[in-house]
Amino acid sequence: MPAPRVELEQATVRLGHRTLWSGLDLSVADGEFLAVLGPNGTGKTTLLKVLLGLLPLSEGIVRVNGKPPSRGNPDIGYIPQQQAFDRDLPIRGRDLVRFGADGHHWGIPLRRGAVNRRVDAVLESVGAAAYADAPVGLLSGGEQQRLRIAQALLGDPKVLLCDEPLLALDLASQRAVTNLIDDRRRNTGTPVLFVTHEINPVLPYVDRILYLVRGRWAIGAPSEILTSERLSDLYGIEVDVVKVRDRYLVVSAEDEMPTEPGAHAHHDHAH
């Protein structure tokens, strides 16, 4: 049986006197789509930083593709949040993608011709070839995010980490971006760790959910995690999970759900 692509054993992260999560046991295999959920400040992005080699564990063991995490690991593709570029930025779409080869993402620099061919191939694979030579600042959010996906795929990664890549995108762009990520998973077996506040856009693709709340965590299929009983136990308050036409709505009669101001959480507050 192949070794898991991502492994954490009794993993703990502390920031100062605060424990984000502890005793986390997680194993992600080839072809798996894992959604990482939870309110702001619970360590979702921190998990990605650990896997990227940017932050050490306080306790426990972590391996990516059988090795300890390291900065610039070519086995990892990373898709960040959508953030608009300055409209006057003099960078073309293909230049943005090429940064994945010219920076620290690949350990061995490739010849210019080989890089150009690879850039063209990934641009075509994500449907971005038509605007590859346009200034990135003039492209839509969905088009920019396609370029970021192309950049993440440039090194043919073994693991794909996605940090809320659907934020600020309209529904059509959300679907397009998620389909591209899922296509990569299905066609190559690349496992996906997908941090998100909103489960519904990605629910059809998700195999398991890792839910982080106040230092606690739960892992399981969506039908196991997205229940009133399980989330009430995690949050420590009474939470109701309602499913309407294959969409989940999480509500609470408490004064405040544990999210931060401005959070794009999938919780609806009921007072």
The number of helical segments is 7
User: Which secondary-structure class do the elements indicate?
Assistant: alpha/beta
Mean pLDDT: 87
Distance between the termini: 50 Å
Q: Would you identify the regions where 5 or more consecutive residues have pLDDT less than 50?
A: 104-108, 258-271
Element pattern in H and E: EEEHEEHHHEHEEEHHEEE
Shape: globular
Query: What proportion of the residues form beta strands (DSSP E)?
Result: 25-35%
Helix content: 25-40%
Biggest beta sheet summary: 6 strands, mixed
Rg: 19 Å
Strand order of the largest sheet: 5-6-7-3-8-9
Strand tally: 12
Describe the structure.
The chain is 28% helix and 26% strand. With 271 residues, it is an alpha/beta fold. The strands form three sheets. A six-stranded mixed beta sheet has the order 5-6-7-3-8-9, with helices on both faces. A hairpin with a 2-residue loop joins strand 1 and strand 2 (18-28). Helix 2 (93-102) runs parallel beside helix 4 and helix 4 runs parallel beside helix 5.
